[in-house]
Amino acid sequence: MTDVTSNAPAKAKLDGREKLAVELGPIAVFLLGFFLHAKLGPVADRIAGTTFFGKEGHELYLALAMMLPVLIIALGYSLIKTRRIAPMLLVSSFGEDIQEGIELDESKFSNLFSNSFARICKISSPLASISI
């Protein structure tokens, strides 16, 4: 029998700790930012030179601002190391993009919905000004 060896390089894989950090790191940072808003908000304000993140009700903004750089780093690391993006990371990045688009631009989203509702129903009544 002949021994056939493949010249194709073996696919690189993330080890256990790397996989855990890449797949759950952005979600963990998001949760830390959201639940530790009272402590991390003033720190983020000092770094950014604003008073935006420390305000009550801005937990989501702080969590997204903390998570997005970690998500980009995790996507890049996964792509460089394995030449592909981890499925969990891909799903969470699309989910966060959708959430960010809706939450950070909520007023435009509600206006868009109201205007679309009015166009579909072809009415100009108080129903057209309903906001979500």
Description of the molecule:
By secondary structure, the chain is an all-alpha fold. The chain is built from five helices and no strands. The model is unreliable at 108-132 (pLDDT under 50).
In short:
This protein has 132 residues and is mainly alpha-helical.
Number of strands: 0
Q: Uncertain regions: pLDDT < 50 for 5+ in a row? A: 108-132
- Mean of all residue-level pLDDT scores: 74
How much strand? under 5%
Structural class: mainly alpha
How are helices and strands ordered from N to C? Answer: HHHHH
The separation of the N and C termini measures: 71 Å
Overall, the morphology is elongated
Radius of gyration from CA coordinates:
22 Å
Please outline the major beta sheet: none
Number of helices: 5
- Determine the fraction of residues in helical runs and give it as a percent range: 55-70%
Describe the SSE topology.
Layout: H1 16-35, H2 37-48, H3 59-82, H4 87-104, H5 106-121
What keyword list fits this structure?
132 residues; mainly alpha; 5 helices; elongated
